[in-house]
Amino acid sequence: MDDGTDEYGPVHGSGPVGQGAGRPGETSGLPGDAAPAPAGPAPLGLVREGTGERQVDAALGRLGDVDHLATEGHLTVYEDVHQGLRAALDALDAPPGPTAPPPARPDGSAGRAH
Description:
Layout: H1 54-61, H2 74-93
């Protein structure tokens, strides 16, 4: 006698046991079964305190820009912040010395005008 079952699983075909087993990606129509919509950008509400270093504070302040960007845009901001922080660190390692030479005079010669 074949009642639609086999020794390894539930009843074949539709019926109470097979309900809810639709195609992948389908929902059963019950509330809460729908896939949630992706959330938009939202501020995290983090408070950044100043460090007292102008370059560092400017770079860290740029992190607030990601609050208004989709995830795909975060990398550009993070790379920019990283570059700013590296520049601040490199400035600490630079030996003290004279600043850039004075600009050339209008006649094209170097040095200071008398």
